[in-house]
Structures are given as C-alpha cells and as structure tokens.
Design brief:
Layout lengths: L26 H4 L14 H5 L19 H18 L8 H20 L5 H41 L3 H5 L2 H34 L9
C-alpha cells in the first residue's frame, strides 16, 4: 500500500517531504518509540557487604529498642537463660556475673544474626532491655511467692529479727520497704546488664568502624 502523510495526502515513493503540507517524512524514522533504558547505579561488592552502606531502596536498620523485633527476641532469650541460672542452687550466687554475661552475649548474638556492629550506646540499650525483661520475670516470681508463702516468710523474718515485727504489722511501712527493695533490684539488674551490653559492643566493634548507634 502506498504511504500517506498524516495530513491524508498520498505520498510519492521514497518522498522525503509531503508535497502538500511539507512535513518531513523521516522524523518518524528518527524517533525511537522505545523508552530509554535506565542503568542501575553501580554498587561495589565492598559497599554491599558493609553494614554502614545500604543498597539503593534498602531500608535503614532499626534502632535498638523495644520496637526492634530482633533485639526484643534476643533480650527475651537472655532473660530466660538468666531465670534458669538463678534457679540453680550454687549458680544463683553468681547473679552479678550472669547479668553481666547476658548483656555481653546479647550484643554478640545480635551481630551474628544481623551482621550489624552495635555502638557502645546501642549495646547498653540492648543490655538494658534484657535487664528490664529479667526484672519483670523476677517481680512476677516474687509476687507469686509472696501470695503463696508470704506468711511463712514474715514469720521467719520476725524470728531472725524481732524488730521486723513492727514493720510487718505496719502495712504502709511494709509497702514502702517492698518498693525500696524492688527499686534497688531494678537498678542493679538493668545497670549490670547494660554494662555488659556496652562491654560486648566495645569488644565486638574493635575491628569495625561501622557501628549502629
């Protein structure tokens, strides 16, 4: 079929211009209807393997907090290990060592699972999360013990120290004593686990300059 121009005029064979409207008939031939290909930016293998450099479009790593599912699972696992160790006679006397080791081990496990090296501050946060979960477990066990064995414990306290009878018979003083004891235990558990996490981050980050803060 003979070629025609966009204006409807039938063109002469191999015509370059339309003899009616003067349109250049080679414009359509020069135009490439295909969309130009966009090449992806080059990312070196070293940049891909580095935790501090993310590939284009990749999400930034989550900060260490209760909203980080990996950090939360590790902290929960470490708290379970601590509770088991504290129930074993003899080993429970080394509770400070276990609290410190839990924070330290949690940071190393986080690096193994994610490939990220935590900063000292992030390691301390991971350790503090472990300490908080451990304290909650201890508080629950303590509360259950007081419910089922509270009277026996109070009687033993009075036998060991007769002056405790005044405290036992005074509910406000007893409540204040419990709150004080819980506050001291909370500070010890969270602080020791956080110190262990900071030490673990310092140890794990000695050979790496890229750290997750």
């Amino acid at each position: 079929m003979p070629e025609s121009c966009t204006c409807g005029t039938i063109l002469v064979e191999n015509a370059r211009f339309c003899h009616r409207c003067g349109k250049d008939q080679r414009e359509d031939q020069r135009e490439d209807p295909r969309e130009p290909e966009v090449s992806a930016p080059y990312v070196s293998p070293a940049a891909i393997s580095s935790p501090s450099v993310a590939a284009p479009g990749a999400r930034a790593p989550l900060p260490v907090s209760f909203g980080n599912p990996v950090a939360l699972r590790i902290a929960f696992l470490m708290s379970l290990v601590l509770m088991v160790l504290e129930m074993i006679p003899g080993l429970n006397l080394l509770f400070l060592v276990w609290w410190l080791a839990a924070g330290f081990s949690g940071v190393l496990l986080y690096r193994r699972l994610t490939g990220l090296v935590l900063s000292v501050r992030a390691g301390a946060r991971l350790g503090s999360i472990t300490g908080i979960l451990t304290f909650v477990s201890m508080a629950v066990i303590f509360a259950l013990t007081m419910v089922f064995m509270g009277n026996d414990l109070f009687q033993q306290m009075v036998k060991q120290d007769p002056q405790m009878k005044e405290v036992v018979n005074n509910p406000p003083a007893m409540a204040a004593l419990f709150i004080l004891v819980l506050a001291i235990i909370f500070a010890m558990v969270v602080g020791t686990c956080a110190a262990g996490g900071a030490l673990g981050a310092r140890f794990a980050g000695r050979d790496s300059s890229a750290r997750l803060s």
